[in-house]
Amino acid sequence: MIPKELIYVTTVAQYGNISKAAERLFVAQPSLSRCILRIERDLGAELFKRTSEGLKPTFAGEYYIENANKIIRLYKELEIQFSNISNMHMGRLAVGTTTHLGSFALPKILANFTTRFPKIELSIVEGVSTGIEEEILKGRVDVGILHSPINNHGIKYTVIHEEKFLLAVPPDDPINEQAYFKDGGEGPYIDIQLTADRPYILTHTSQRTRQVTTKILENAKIDVKPRYLTKSIQTASRLVRDNLGFTLVPLSYCKLFGSAYSPNYYFIEEQYQPSWELVIAYSKDIPLSKASKEFNKIALETLPQLYDFPND
Amino acid sequence: MIPKELIYVTTVAQYGNISKAAERLFVAQPSLSRCILRIERDLGAELFKRTSEGLKPTFAGEYYIENANKIIRLYKELEIQFSNISNMHMGRLAVGTTTHLGSFALPKILANFTTRFPKIELSIVEGVSTGIEEEILKGRVDVGILHSPINNHGIKYTVIHEEKFLLAVPPDDPINEQAYFKDGGEGPYIDIQLTADRPYILTHTSQRTRQVTTKILENAKIDVKPRYLTKSIQTASRLVRDNLGFTLVPLSYCKLFGSAYSPNYYFIEEQYQPSWELVIAYSKDIPLSKASKEFNKIALETLPQLYDFPND
DNA sequence: AGGTCTTACGACTATCGTAATGATG
DNA sequence: CATCATTACGATAGTCGTAAGACCT
Q1: What is the CATH number for B247?
Q2: Is A226 among the domain residues?
Q3: A287 FRET partner, CA 20 to 30 A, in A103, A192, A196, B244?
Q4: How far apart are CA B107 and CA B120, in angstroms?
């Protein structure tokens, strides 16, 4: 709110008359009179000469009025911008995501978001899952698109989509023979126990794929022998194709990589919990901005479609 | 005074910590906390994200802080200028005076004033006495240097100097013969009654010299026959020299005109009140500014000296 | 336990409106 | 006497500080 003093003084100056100004300002005339006197007392200088023809600014008054007008203008700009902010005509949003999701999931969401809110500046922060979580906690990232599990209890999230992990098997490996089908299954299964004591190709420990893989293998009580470490699941997949070991790959990645120069992918039994979830994550402490809420809404509309791959 | 909101928000932003900011601002920490919350509520937008590492401005907050700083800067300028005004390091003063006094009395005062207060803008308004009085009432002139009598009771004044009016007599006129001297008199006297029924050269009715002259002649019960009207006493004086009539001239004017091509000047009896006063005049209603008071002081020191003419 | 921010409550002060007073034309 | 500014006074609302609560490290 604009300080009353400024409005009062400038309006009195404008009308040269306290009564008229009071009417215009919707205050009682004595109140305005007192207010002007108080301001003058506080400043230690007369702002108006009370002449028989009304109130006319003194030298000090002229200076005050000039500056008051400048200040009022700034206040009005501020108010306009705040109404813009609350109407989403301006704002800023930092979205954090992993490298893979940055190219896979984000583009569609961003396209929808910027179409709907073209005046919101979007900044994308890419990094590994744990790094993004850290950024969310610090408040440098407003919203993250990540995969569960999220163990950090400073972060809350909503689940968008659950996705299976598949076992990548070298095409030449004998265990291909033992693949089987299940009722209602989307494809061939294989028993992960067959890979016990066999080498695995893994991603780095800070990567969510590695964390999920580790968990699955733990569930299967398989003591992993890491053979290669890579940052990219796609690389891991190719290494499997070259018969260098096994790896676990999220379903969407398999589909995305296509069938050229790929290993064989098999579902594995539910008991090992071979899945992760795509989630939208926020700080638990920092209240959601309007922009964040809108982003959430758009993400919820957009993302599930991405997993309806065209049949090939 | 600078609005608290601005200071509060910017200080909190500066420290990123309400406790520290509260300490710095000499307010209780809960008060500051509440204050920030209230401001946010009023604006309808969060200004700070409360993160584990302290308070960090949101997008809206950044904008607010930026503008708040601009506004604070303007307020500070305003404060500085007001302190300048009260220390007479700046200001404006409108001085009104008659044409004659503008060249006779004013230069010395102005020189002293501007030496002492070089930063005060001085504006000089010249006009006839009644015009200047009008300007004083309207507040367009702060201080007037005028001659009494001032009949306008909206004006108050302090007397600087009293001055006699002298009768100007053509050198050839027979009444020169009847001049006489008095004990303690500064010069020759003449009986103004000798000019009864003789023509007079007068100034315009709006001029103070005319008003004083009229009064003196009334006091002497002389029914005037105006022969010529002029705006300048000097012109009148010359016309007297040319034997075209009589006129009454203030003493300082006589001395100023010098003796070349002058009529003869005679004192006249006190009973006709042949004098006026030099006064500094102000509006009764408009309180005196500091500059006006200082001007008054300097005028009181300066003006009396002007009437100590060097003996010639 | 020590730090932080927020909520609760009582006290105070500033500002308002109505009414009365003063000043002016 | 009509208009305008100022002073008087009671009511109200905003702001403060102290104390207590909530939360994180």
Answers
A1: 3.40.190.290
A2: yes
A3: A103
A4: 16
